[in-house]
């Protein structure tokens, strides 16, 4: 999931990866938050194989674009590159992305590229199999202009709730805070996540 | 959904029944009386759940006359479970049985698709329920009173109705306790609103 806070962006992802039914969790420690440029990160969703392949290509295109423009790329540029790949190959691919970052022109931004290749900008967004369980929580709890600490707590809680209910989400929670000044990684192992009333 | 509190239960449901994309009934009453102080929340196939509820209401009514006492909520729940499990291949019915009896007070029993039976302090069901598991896990605390239960139920149902295409309309609430059954309706424009993003 990703949130747009007053001056920064907080992204959070949980780390389980599974094969489709019969379900098998092939890894509990995958990092799904990939850095595509200095201040732009992407969360992968869907088939990890497809997502990894798309991101590899997108990283190259973005870096080339950045060299041509002689400046760091805009967040929307990164999102657009992903969108083009997802849309043009929609029949073969099953990958979605949450792109977030900071650029000089528009500050912190969050974009969603869905499975078929739609691109939209949102203040807060969630994705992946566990996201269905936290739509209500996110709708109720999110308020605009939160501080960085509030955002981090909100993202951690939301991930913990999703990981608590979804059998193929779990392991470790990766959070990344992106601001003008730089990038900060926060990793929360499963046993250190917030616990709720029935745990 | 249904929530236990000390002295009774609060049950709530949306009011949308669909046939495909058409909303056949936008003011459905999914809170069905099985006995004076035992109600059920129906989800899944409307036909299946109506049929089962009628059968159980008959069986429970008969049992109550034989006993010469109000029936237990656990009895009602077991009657639902018996039908839902025996005919599990033919049915699509997810039912929450909730009510009050003298022996154990307010109780909520969940009989999901497949015919399992489990008692829970809080239970949600139906297509919109997936969206509010997180909200309920975060906001439900044991020991809430009746008004708090009503508020959390109305809030959770609103959130689910906002996100799920198969849920909507009005929120119907009922509270069941030793005093009796109190029913409320919250219309669309009076539902709790959450920040739009």
From TrEMBL, chain A:
The UniProt GO MF terms for this protein read: threonine-type endopeptidase activity
Bilayer-spanning residue ranges = none
Q: Which Pfam families match?
A: Proteasome
Matching SUPFAM superfamilies: N-terminal nucleophile aminohydrolases (Ntn hydrolases) (SSF56235)
Which reactions fall under this protein's catalytic activity? Cleavage of peptide bonds with very broad specificity
Q: Where in the cell is it found?
A: Nucleus
Matching CDD domains? proteasome_beta_type_6
Q: Which UniProt keywords apply?
A: Cytoplasm, Hydrolase, Protease, Proteasome, Threonine protease
> What PROSITE patterns does the database record attribute to this sequence?
PROTEASOME_BETA_2
A biological process (GO) of this protein is: proteolysis involved in protein catabolic process
EC number of the protein: 3.4.25.1
One GO cellular component term noted in the UniProt record for this chain: nucleus
Q: Which domain of life is it from?
A: Eukaryota
The task this protein performs is described as: The proteasome is a multicatalytic proteinase complex which is characterized by its ability to cleave peptides with Arg, Phe, Tyr, Leu, and Glu adjacent to the leaving group at neutral or slightly basic pH. The proteasome has an ATP-dependent proteolytic activity. This subunit is involved in antigen processing to generate class I binding peptides.
Q: Which PANTHER family match?
A: ATP-DEPENDENT PROTEASE SUBUNIT HSLV, METALLOPROTEASE TLDD
Q: What is the protein name for this chain?
A: proteasome endopeptidase complex
**Species this protein is from:** Neolamprologus brichardi (Fairy cichlid)
From TrEMBL, chain B:
Q: Which InterPro entries match?
A: Ntn_hydrolases_N (IPR029055), Pept_T1A_subB (IPR000243), Proteasome_bsu_CS (IPR016050), Proteasome_sua/b (IPR001353), Proteasome_suB-type (IPR023333)
- Mind telling me which Gene3D superfamilies this protein's record contains? Glutamine Phosphoribosylpyrophosphate, subunit 1, domain 1 (3.60.20.10)
Recorded catalytic activity of this chain's protein: Cleavage of peptide bonds with very broad specificity
Give the GO molecular function terms: threonine-type endopeptidase activity
Does Secreted appear among the keywords? Answer: no
Family under the similarity heading: Belongs to the peptidase T1B family.
Function text: The proteasome is a multicatalytic proteinase complex which is characterized by its ability to cleave peptides with Arg, Phe, Tyr, Leu, and Glu adjacent to the leaving group at neutral or slightly basic pH. The proteasome has an ATP-dependent proteolytic activity. This subunit is involved in antigen processing to generate class I binding peptides.
UniProt protein name:
Proteasome subunit beta
